[in-house]
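quick q for whoever's on today - can somebody do inverse folding on this one?? i tried earlier but teh output was garbage lol. tokens:
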């Protein structure tokens, strides 16, 4: 009898522990949108499922598809690298959940070090004015004295996808959430670029990455007195924002999604594209240093992206207005904030609760878990704003 009572107590205690350790329910939310966000979300949703018991399904398709699906109430949340220009639902909430650099990804196997590109040269390549890697403008970029920032880092213990604790390097941030520059490297480079045709890979789908890239090409060249190089307004369809009709250019190749354009670059020597850094890492492709408004050449990384966005303006709705003309030390001027689109109301309490939990998880935990992918954790005033936006989800 005593043994039965003892076993019963153990069973009750075990059941209580299971209740405490398990979520009240295991639910599912569905999202779509930016392929720019996919590498982080694909990693993060696995960790979130382990920690919460909830499932997150996210399909890409581009920012335009995400905004369209969200406006049509076809998803529980969406991802977009650019705000709506029109047609935004009345109950929309923008949440800036992470930031990342748009990298200049290229394929030049005979060049053994990273190349350097100015805003003018990038505009000329992507508008079809420069069609060969040995062009004098590109030679000028790569035969000069360059100044590059080196950011202070620290080691951080995080769990990998298998739950094992690993050590990773992350940027050191000051009290305002800005990365700390440890020093500058100044050196004279003399890189011989090959006599190789440039193949430009661009996004054919509606893309927030394309829109932000076009904003950069216009804004950065206006700031340096070269507005004529990229005079048209940005568009989520890349070909609509280019100065020339690229459909008539022999060296332009289109593809849908960041993965596809990066794969195109990997498959053809002389190619170049714009995409999130992790796509370059996955394809073992080099990326260029990009000149900022301070005259520095900066690598596409989390620290440079944070420095650039820290010089922008946070709008009341949670979006960020960047400043391409501002000389921000250490800034990677092709850095961009990316947004989750959430409904203020209209979904079930269970769905909304999971969305809130997932966006909080992405904001606070995910970028620091995967610094090697180039995603920057939102910090400082923008992080405060993001939490305010998440709190609006009812």
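ok took a stab at it. sequence:
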């Amino acid at each position: 009898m005593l043994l039965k009572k003892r076993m019963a107590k153990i069973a009750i205690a075990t059941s209580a522990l299971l209740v405490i350790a398990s979520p009240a329910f295991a639910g599912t939310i569905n999202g779509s949108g930016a392929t720019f966000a996919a590498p982080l979300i694909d990693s993060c949703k696995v960790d979130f499922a382990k920690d919460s018991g909830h499932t997150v399904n996210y399909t890409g398709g581009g920012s335009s598809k995400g905004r369209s699906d969200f406006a049509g109430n076809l998803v529980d949340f969406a991802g977009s690298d650019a705000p709506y220009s029109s047609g935004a639902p009345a109950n929309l909430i923008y949440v800036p959940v992470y930031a990342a650099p748009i990298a200049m990804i290229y394929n030049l196997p005979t060049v053994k070090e990273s190349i350097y590109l100015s805003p003018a040269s990038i505009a000329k390549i992507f508008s079809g004015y420069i069609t060969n890697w040995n062009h004098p403008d590109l030679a000028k970029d790569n035969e000069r004295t360059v100044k590059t920032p080196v950011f202070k880092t620290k080691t951080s213990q995080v769990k990998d996808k298998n739950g094992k604790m690993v050590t990773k390097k992350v940027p050191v941030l000051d009290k305002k959430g800005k990365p700390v520059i440890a020093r500058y490297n100044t050196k004279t480079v003399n890189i011989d670029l090959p006599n190789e045709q440039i193949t430009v890979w661009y996004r054919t789908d509606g893309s927030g990455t394309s829109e932000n890239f076009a904003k950069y090409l216009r804004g950065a060249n206006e700031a340096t007195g070269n507005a004529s190089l990229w005079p048209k307004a940005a568009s989520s369809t890349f070909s609509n924002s280019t100065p020339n009709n690229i459909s008539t250019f022999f060296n332009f190749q289109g593809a849908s999604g960041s993965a596809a354009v990066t794969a195109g670059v990997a498959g053809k020597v002389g190619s170049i594209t714009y995409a999130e850094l992790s796509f370059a890492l996955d394809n073992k492709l080099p990326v260029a240093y990009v000149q900022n408004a301070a005259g520095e050449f900066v690598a596409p990384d989390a620290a440079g992206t944070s420095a650039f966005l820290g010089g922008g303006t946070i709008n009341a709705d949670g979006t960020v207005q960047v400043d391409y003309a501002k000389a921000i030390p250490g800034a990677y001027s092709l850095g961009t904030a990316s947004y989750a689109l959430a409904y203020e109301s209209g979904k079930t309490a269970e769905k909304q609760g999971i969305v809130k939990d997932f966006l909080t998880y992405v904001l606070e935990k995910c970028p620091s878990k995967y610094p090697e992918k180039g995603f920057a954790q939102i910090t400082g005033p923008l992080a405060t704003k993001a939490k305010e936006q998440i709190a609006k989800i009812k």
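fwiw Residues 2-21 form the longest helix (20 residues). also Residues 1-22 have pLDDT under 50 and may be disordered. so keep that in mind when u check it
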